[in-house]
Structure to design on (573 residues):
């Protein structure tokens, strides 16, 4: 009789080999915290590569100029909206003033604050998208980084900081809504409200994005958590009471509402959709004169702006449609609710791009909806059962990343590569201006060469405490200003409410600028912006009152490089 082992079709027991368990990959052997730390580390390296180049690259003369001057004025007792025009909330100025008080007023201090704002924004995108896995979150954050880093370098403008606070407010709000631990949920709700209040302190116009996101967030949320969120919001925004008390309700409303919404809009808007054959914005044209080489064929940069505009609209639409569909299909799904909240936040950001569709404003908005688009893509790929969640995230994330690099390289990957190249000493196109231990970088060699002798003559004819006015060569047109000159002459008092000059505001009849000119001891006029010709109300010639004061009370000291003119009060000549 045959032994059992010899039965046909049955292998002997000692010949059966147990299948070997697959060895986990390196990533799988790491803990969750370690994998998240690696992802964040990759993003920080991506920020570090262009950092040195950005720290010594040219900055926007007016915007970075007033972000250097305003905080120093605040430290000296000046109040936004009362003593100088400031179209946004006081929060960013208070933060910079605190940084300058501790570390000193310098371009580096200001730009490191700008870096912190960008890092906060990108990590906010990462943590919101983290609900769909690290792979897709890393892709989302990479898209946000490529979009937000290039437009204005590290200038610490309020919008980027406000969006960063807003994203973290949304993240904590979602965490509170879905938390099982009531104690943690309450703390997260308060934190969410406080961060939303901080965002409004930076940019009150972010109320639309936060309001839309908040309405979607609190629908169906426990009232105890909603109440704590509202308490946090009141706490976060309560410093506005201090600002209103110092500036006055009338000046604050004029500076933060009337000027930007009613008086300024006509002089800053650009055509919609953007022109595909030319740049509509003057600064866009000026900034495209020395492009960094790019090895891959691409469409013309103005056409990229047009494509970008429609991609942004499509991204917001996709987020909204996918979010609404998911919430209706699975009302209790945390991811569905999170996606719809993010879509609502993105929709609320859109007016910022519609009011002026240049590369800066498009970047300020699309760094959220276009960066979060991989999340919607991952949801659409859920029916692909053959793909693991990680692979779905990678496919969706890489698709968006490649699209951004392929269609918008001039304003994303190429600009980023340019900053990295400058970090390593290549393609340097900025010119250092140094005075009284302070440094600024200009993109115009003629302006950089003209300023040292001009500043030396200002020192010769002025005394500490004298009042300085910086304006355009024809004060009937005020499209822009070289506000950074105030920063380079800290011993002089700022003589005007219009450190930031805007068309339809500074040159408006009765604006008070003529009185400011009359109060000055020293005047610097710049012809750099004489060719400003945007298709908007900036071309309208305003009041001649300020020019008349110059003609009657000031004498020319000299001209410098055909770019600047220095004047002083005739009685002091």
């Amino acid at each position: 009789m045959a032994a059992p082992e010899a039965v046909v079709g049955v292998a002997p027991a000692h010949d059966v080999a147990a299948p070997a368990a697959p060895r986990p990959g390196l990533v799988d052997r790491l803990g969750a915290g370690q994998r998240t730390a690696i992802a964040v580390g990759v993003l920080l390296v991506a920020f570090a590569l262009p950092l040195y180049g950005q720290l010594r690259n040219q900055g926007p003369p007016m915007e970075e100029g007033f972000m250097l001057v305003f905080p120093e004025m605040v430290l000296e007792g000046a109040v936004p909206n009362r003593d100088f025009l400031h179209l946004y909330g006081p929060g960013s100025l208070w933060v910079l003033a605190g940084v300058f008080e501790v570390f000193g007023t310098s371009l580096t201090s200001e730009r490191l604050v700008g870096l912190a704002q960008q890092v906060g924004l990108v990590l906010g995108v990462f943590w919101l998208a983290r609900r769909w896995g690290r792979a897709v979150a890393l892709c989302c954050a990479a898209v946000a980084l490529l979009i937000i880093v290039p437009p204005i370098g590290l200038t610490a403008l309020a919008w980027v900081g406000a969006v960063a606070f807003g994203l973290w407010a949304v993240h904590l709000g979602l965490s509170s809504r879905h938390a099982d631990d009531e104690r943690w949920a309450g703390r997260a709700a308060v934190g969410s409200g406080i961060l939303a209040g901080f965002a409004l302190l930076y940019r009150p116009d972010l109320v639309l994005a936060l309001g839309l996101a908040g309405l979607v967030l609190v629908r169906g949320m426990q009232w105890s958590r909603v109440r704590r969120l509202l308490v946090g919001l009141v706490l976060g925004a309560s410093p506005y009471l201090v600002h209103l008390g110092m500036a006055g309700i009338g000046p604050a409303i004029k500076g933060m509402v009337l000027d930007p919404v009613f008086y300024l809009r006509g002089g800053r808007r650009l055509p919609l959709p953007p022109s595909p054959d030319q740049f509509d914005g003057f600064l866009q044209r000026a900034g495209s004169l020395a492009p960094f080489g790019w090895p891959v064929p691409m469409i013309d940069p103005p056409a990229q702006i047009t494509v970008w505009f429609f991609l942004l609209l499509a991204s917001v639409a996709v987020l909204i449609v996918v979010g609404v569909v998911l919430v209706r299909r699975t009302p209790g799904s945390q991811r569905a609710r999170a996606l719809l909240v993010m879509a609502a936040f993105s929709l609320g950001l859109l007016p910022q791009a519609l009011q002026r569709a240049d590369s800066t404003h498009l970047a300020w908005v699309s760094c959220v909806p276009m960066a979060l688009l991989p999340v919607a893509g991952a949801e659409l790929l859920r029916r692909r059962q053959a793909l693991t969640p990680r692979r779905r995230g990678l496919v969706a994330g890489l698709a968006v990343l490649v699209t951004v690099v392929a269609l918008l390289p001039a304003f994303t990957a190429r600009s980023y590569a340019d900053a990295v190249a400058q970090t390593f000493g290549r393609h340097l196109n900025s010119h250092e201006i140094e005075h009284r231990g302070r440094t600024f970088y200009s993109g115009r060699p003629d302006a950089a060469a003209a300023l040292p002798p001009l500043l030396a003559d200002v020192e010769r004819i002025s005394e500490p405490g004298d009042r300085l006015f910086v304006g355009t060569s024809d004060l009937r047109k005020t499209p822009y200003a070289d506000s950074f000159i105030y920063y380079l002459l800290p011993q002089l008092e700022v003589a005007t409410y219009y450190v930031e000059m805007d068309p339809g505001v500074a040159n408006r009849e009765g604006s008070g600028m003529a009185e400011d000119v009359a109060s000055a001891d020293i005047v610097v006029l710049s012809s750099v912006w004489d060719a400003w010709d945007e298709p908007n109300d900036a071309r309208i010639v305003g009041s001649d009152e300020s020019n008349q004061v110059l003609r009657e009370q000031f004498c020319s000291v000299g001209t410098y490089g055909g770019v600047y003119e220095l004047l002083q009060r005739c009685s002091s000549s």
